[in-house]
Amino acid sequence: MAKAGAMDLASGLGGNLSRRDLASAVDQYEKYHSFYGGEEDKRKFNYTDMVNKYYDLATSFYEYGWGQSFHFANRFQDETLQESIKRHEHFLALHLGLKPEMKVLDVGCGIGGPLREIARFSGASITGLNNNGYQISRGTELNKKYGLDKTCDFVKADFMKMPLADNTYDAVYAIEATCHAPDAVGCYKEIWRVLKPGQCFAAYEWCMTDAYDPHNEHHNKMKAEIELGNGLPDIRTTRQCLEAAKEAGFEVWNDDLAKTSPLPWYLPIDPGRFSLSSFRLTRLGRFFTRNLVWVLESIKVAPEGSGRVSQFLEKGADGLVAGGKKEIFTPMYFFLARKPL
């Protein structure tokens, strides 16, 4: 579930950043992006700093509004958001054939929401790999809270250069995480290296679809909003992701699950929709959160710059909804990739 209230949100704002450094970190983060004169090459070159700043700044907002699993899901008419998120995670576990005694790697694990759900569902032992210290400390705390600290753990590392031995894992998955990689081929090659021969890697990727026109000004504005609001150096196309997985050495099966979702994947953050079960994600809920953060900042409970974080996250949400409605963007380009024997 999401964090309970305002003080929970305020207590986590800034992650591992000191209160006095938060506003400066917001400045530096924003300047990486095109809305503030930033360039793609600099985002890719400095991806570690950019992505770490993003998750220090954004994680508390994510947990407050979304819960412990920071991802979208295809969704049926009679499902709640949280039910669809769990099913989306189970879908990966089933395609990977996860079961007890398997050793599994979650690449870019966030605070471990999917890791814990998949571990409970499958009985597998799962290691979460993440390069953000605050998210690892929060995930470790939650693993202990839910009694999973004996079978699930974390490694602080960059997924472009994992400090892990070759042919270690029985399965690897990534849920809306490797979109932060500056180079998909390099990232997938690292995953290929640590995966045992004959075993599989499953991923949900954030991608621009074939409907995206790189020469269309409105399409590029939506793309830039998504990058700003979600800590992305760039957004690859579905074709680029597929080719990158093949170039890394995998045999690949793929599908864009957004195309067959009974309800639009962006529905939870669509400002035209209202829901009591996920109120904090609605237009009214976001209005309350935005003003709550400004109040907390004005009375010095939240650090200076917190309101600006809320603003760029909202801009990212607007880009996601617009990109989803235009069908130029998907957060659930799914592929199952096998490392040959």
Automatic annotation (TrEMBL):
Keywords: Lipid biosynthesis, Lipid metabolism, Methyltransferase, S-adenosyl-L-methionine, Steroid biosynthesis, Steroid metabolism, Sterol biosynthesis, Sterol metabolism, Transferase. The keyword Methyltransferase applies. It comes from the Eukaryota. The lineage of its organism: Eukaryota, Viridiplantae, Streptophyta, Embryophyta, Tracheophyta. PROSITE patterns: SAM_MT_ERG6_SMT. GO terms for molecular function: sterol 24-C-methyltransferase activity. This is Methyltransferase. Its EC number is 2.1.1.-. Residues 54-340 form the SAM-dependent methyltransferase Erg6/SMT-type domain. SUPFAM superfamilies: S-adenosyl-L-methionine-dependent methyltransferases. GO terms for biological process: methylation; sterol biosynthetic process. One of its GO terms (cellular component) is endoplasmic reticulum. Belongs to the class I-like SAM-binding methyltransferase superfamily. Erg6/SMT family. It holds the Pfam family Methyltransf_11. Pathway: Steroid biosynthesis; sterol biosynthesis.
